[in-house]
Amino acid sequence: MGEHRGDTRARIQAVALELFAEQGYEKTSLREIAERLNVTKAALYYHFKTKEDIVVSLFDDQLGRLDELITWGREQPATQETRQELVRRYADQLYASGPGLMRFAHENQGTMRDLAVGEKLKSRMKGLRELLIDPKAPLTDQLKSAMAPFTLNIAHFAFDDYDITDEERRAAGIAVALELVSGSPHTDA
Amino acid sequence: MGEHRGDTRARIQAVALELFAEQGYEKTSLREIAERLNVTKAALYYHFKTKEDIVVSLFDDQLGRLDELITWGREQPATQETRQELVRRYADQLYASGPGLMRFAHENQGTMRDLAVGEKLKSRMKGLRELLIDPKAPLTDQLKSAMAPFTLNIAHFAFDDYDITDEERRAAGIAVALELVSGSPHTDA
DNA sequence: GTCTATAGTGTGATAGAC
DNA sequence: GTCTATCACACTATAGAC
């Protein structure tokens, strides 16, 4: 015992993310988080102002990286190559953040709406979507492009009953996402 | 006033579905539902044994129809035509149920896990997925097939800032879903 | 940096009158 | 079939000691 020193804040984040992702933000109480860490609720309030503040801290880095990606994308020409590179870089960010955040966002979409950080994330995803879509393409092609980011998420949770590695899931997700943003081989009308 | 007679149960379902879909199952209290209907919480408990019981009643019909669809699918040959017809029939069921249920399931995935009805729905979706997938196809093609049901959902909520009708969204969703289950034009290895 | 203690509110659910 | 009243409990958050 007593093996932890100044890492309490990080440990709170880790446990909170795990529980939020596993059983939802609303259903996870501060008492539960505190018990899992063998501290008290009041200790949590020393490190974070509110419950929502824990979530904000969780998404902080990710949001910053998303901003950078979108800024980069807006400086590039709106070509198919740019869109494919956007998918690759977005996938890198997603997987670098670990499965926890992905799953949190995936399972708490309803909750995220009223959290301020949820609005931020939503606006970033819209920015990304606008970069991935060719507004002149047919609606079906636009839909396919819009689905590319979802694909990366779904790929990670689908086939949980298959005997394959996460790396294989990841590769499949990226491959399909790239195909989705590449448009059908259609002739110009 | 006094315009309602024996429709209280149905009115509870309607309001509950709306609120659950809008702000989440956990965040919606029975008090809120009751107030919206100008009845008391106790009145709710006359019609439904528990809060979860309201959700169960909401998904009851839908689950039955899904069972029929899967039973039908299992009787058909595992061809591309069958898979496409499955997508069409599933889409019909989805849209016939109205947007509320779709949105509920979409925004409360985390919550659905511990609800008994969530487990049921999940097993049905797995059954449907197995019918849509060709287990001999490359993993990327399997992923595309697995995404077809998601597509129908996403199509309905994406482009909420576009000036298009729900019917156009629906048509685009079905078109893309059909393409996803049809596999790439790949040669047999 | 972490504790005890508690305020203050809201929840799902029940009992029993009408 | 709907009501009033209430129970028992959990929650977020705060105050103040150590």
From TrEMBL, chains A, B:
Residues 6-66 form the HTH tetR-type domain. Pfam families: TetR_N. InterPro entries: DNA-bd_HTH_TetR-type_CS, Homeodomain-like_sf, HTH-type_TetR-like_transc_reg, HTH_TetR. The keyword DNA-binding applies. The keyword DNA-binding applies. Residues 29-48 bind DNA. Keywords: DNA-binding. This is TetR family transcriptional regulator.
